[in-house]
Amino acid sequence: MSSYNTSLWKMNRSHCPAYFDRISCWPPTETGIRRIIPCPVNIFPTANPNVYASLLCKNESRWEEKSHYELCIGCTTIDPLDGNKTDLFLIPSSFLITRKYFMTCANGLSVIFLIIGIFILLGNSRLRQYSRNILHVNIFLVFLIRSITQLIAEIFMDKGYFTHNVFQRTDICNRTTIYFKHHLVDCKLFVVFINYISSSVVHWFVFCEALYLYRLLRAKASKDQIRWYIITGWLAPLCLTIITYTTRFLLKKDLHSCWFEPSIYDWILHGPNVVLQIVIN
What we know:
By secondary structure, this protein is mainly α. It has 7 helices and 10 strands. It has helices spanning 2-14, 93-123, 125-128, 131-156, 185-218, 223-250, 266-280; strands at 15-16, 19-20, 25-26, 29-30, 34-38, 52-56, 157-158, 161-162, 166-170, 176-180.
């Protein structure tokens, strides 16, 4: 009798006991083994006969909390018995958090130092006399605005959307779907402004500054010419931005989204900048 109790005790330590989960009966299973059984036809009459339900016997001789009937109801999941299949690549959450902190700190420092640089150039009467410093102030200003918008995006946006416009739902297959509220005017306007500033950075740094230095070598630039540089630097990207997103709106492309995703219409905005970089270089 004692030998029987000993063998029973060893079996209990190395097996999960028989278990009923209110749908199926699971036989005793060795620890570390995922038991599979056919889908019960009385519960899932339309289930594919080639699929199965599964339940893992954990190392502490206890069944996992939830039986897996996803395949029985038509969900597509990675086969747990197929060793040749690899997990999908997912970016670790720790990396995303570190990136968020790094981008926030970097843009915050940029805002501080750019403000200091602008005050130095504008606060000194001698420095204000030089035309090139007026261009530098505008370049600092466009970089400052871009850093501020990126800072706002890092803090208040998630997956290209403001957090109050995003909500998630999990279906019976344990698949999480992200939904967006239809009222996305604020998000659209912010993304349009981000792209306008990004285009302005390239236009100012590559075109206006380079053209001014080139003309400075050929002939002395006057303050009247500086005025046209400033007008061109701010107005040209604005015109391209208006054309780009007016076209996107009139053609009813991605009206349900926030326009954060890349589109073929972005070439209207960024194409001239690419051409300018090639020509000037």
